[in-house]
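so my prof wants the structure for this chain in the tokens format not the other one, which i didnt know existed until like an hour ago. anyway here's the sequence
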Amino acid sequence: MALMIDSEHSSLLRSAPRLFQILRVLARHKFLGALRGKGHWPPPREVRETFEELGLAFLKFGQVLAMRRDLLPAAYIKELEQLHDQLPALGIDAVRATVEAELGAPLTELFASFSELPLAAATIAQVHEASMPDGRHVAVKVQRPGLEEMISTDIAAMNYLVALGESLFPRLRALDLPVLVSEFASSLNQETDFSHEARSIMLFRTALADIPDLWIPDVVTERSSDNVLTMEFSDGERVDLYAREHPELMPRLLNTLVRLTLQTIFEEGLFHADPHPGNVLVLPDGRLSLLDFGMTGELDEAMRESLTLLLEAVVKGDARAATEAYLELAPQGSEKVNRAALLMDIKAVLYTIHRSDLKEISIGDSFDSLLRAGSRHGVHNPGEFFLLTRTFVILESMIRELDPDHDYLKSFREEITRLTEKHFSLERIKEKTGKLAREMERLISDGPGDTRHILRRIAEGNLGRLQAPAVEALGGRISRNLKRLTTTISAAALIIGGAMLVNAPLPGWHHLLGETMVYTGIFVTGLVSIGILRRDRGRGSGRR
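here's what i got, hopefully its the right format
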């Protein structure tokens, strides 16, 4: 089921009963007084119990707020992180009805066996153990019925509450609550769409196929739909329980966990946003098994590059570079940000990080501090950054729980070094050089024609008083200048790429290749400069 919030559910008349019910619960838990300011907020425990009482959508919203460390004090974050999503299990009749309606056949024909008792029951779905007619052992995830109506109504009610709160208390607009609710609705839409989760599983299986110590259960597509997801059964033990019996095996398993996290983030732009112990199992043969891809994040190439620059700047303590990389990650509205004030806050964050003991440094907490600094100065942080911060916070917390003595940063540095070497490999350089060459070729070949076409349109229109021959001559000059420009850009790319290779902490031929690229770029730049000087001298003599 892909959740769609239609106009009918968004009407005030349709949402009014639920809205009044929500207001009664908020009033009983002293929430309405919070509109008067932080001094009137209800206690953290009261806040958590309120979200739990309001049901699925608000419970999930509370979990999202637990990630917004830039908005809420630490005590509230800690309490909201305890929000449980366990509900009483659905009866087998309701499960059977959903499966049969989704897959179009009787349950007894679809599966050779199907356990009536679920392995787990959460707010959105519950999981049953089953077997296929061909003998395959599977796990069947079945979504609770009626979620679309319930969630649509609650999202509409949230939007009305936010609009009402902002109209009565304009200072709430600084929190950008409508955007927060919109991003939450989108996230919930993704989590309730099992076809999206199936696609995520396939992407992760492909991205992590070269990690021998990892197994991700495959999707059984012929027994899956928007509301039912059937996967291979993972016969493993929770990693936290396994760690108590086999502490000596934890370093290898944790290194694998760090590797798969960083590899998917920096190479594929994917990450599992909920890597808690219940979603990480250890198989009988010692491999890790990763489960539950309902909450995942994606980073495009530009965001991955900015993230790499941000991490590098944080490690070096370069506040200016960290500020620029951070604003590249969150470009929306960044032109209105007081960069000088943000730079001072980030300097303070980096100073605190570099004063700490290496063993106490947390990537998740570092990202959290950057988010808080940005929010104070009006930066609109993208939802992916919050998910990524949550990923690192949960991962680091789990590692400390499983093996308190494990050097997490050592694992992190080793994996970053491996990814850096791969990034500067000959194959990657050839790939990027080829892409750059194709783009330059297209620019050079298309530029003159496009330029002449535009100038001809100007000459023929009301704005153009130039004669066609003059326009064509101007087009020719622009075309020649465009070719010089693209040649210069190519040379600059060679110089920059070569400088990166020379300065990269890599042994062997990388240094020699980098020097060759730099010298070639300088030589080409010199040729272009000589051509420009000759042209200028020719014009000067012509005028005389």
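also thought this was worth mentioning. Confidence is low (pLDDT under 50) at residues 1-10, 462-468.
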